[in-house]
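Hi,

Apologies if this is the wrong queue. I'm a grad student, and the batch job for LysR substrate-binding domain-containing protein from Streptomyces aurantiogriseus produced an output file that my downstream script rejects. I'm not sure whether the problem is my script or the file. Here is the sequence I used:
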Amino acid sequence: MDAAMLRAQRSGRPHRLVVAARQGTGSGLLADVVRAYRRQPGAADVEVVFTRDQIDLVRNGSADIALACDHGVLDGMEFSELVKVETFALLPLDHSLAAKPAVSVADIVQDELFRPLSSAVAPEAMLDEIVDKVAMGELITMVGASATDRIGSAVTAVPVVDAPPTLLVLTWRQDVPAATRDAFVHTAQRVAAGTRASQPQGPSWVAPPRQPARSP
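Support response: The file is valid. Your script probably expects a header line. Output copied below for reference.
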């Protein structure tokens, strides 16, 4: 959606919270957070905008809050850490590593089919396209655990034991009303804490510490 259009919509509906997220980020976490927040008395209307540029939408004022993976692009922004997401390799079912309980980064990157997501497909590609390419034996790649809920039956996901986890965060504009921001962020922290508590502790998962919001 055009940034100017989003800003115009926001200005006409002051008690509204625009949340930007990349499709599939956090799997069901975003839905659980939004539903839990909406049940609170006095909650602002929530509009979720799906985009690949969620951080940019917050920076330019088109969105109030973004759910994103922290890849070192949050300089100068306030944020709250929610959950660390383990890394999985996506493999076709007939791949030699597909039946293993876990693999290493070296196992994956030395495979001739391996491509990092940044170069495996076009930037606008959706997860369905990535999964189709894996299923056809055209590539293998690594993704966060949240993506494994949507891979279907033609692809398997294997934990990568020594890959660093992806940190899922909420970040926001500094001029978001504090009460609205805090209510949404605290709801997200509570939901994320429940997600961590219920996550199965496989060979590559370590329960992360609860950390407060940080600011520059």
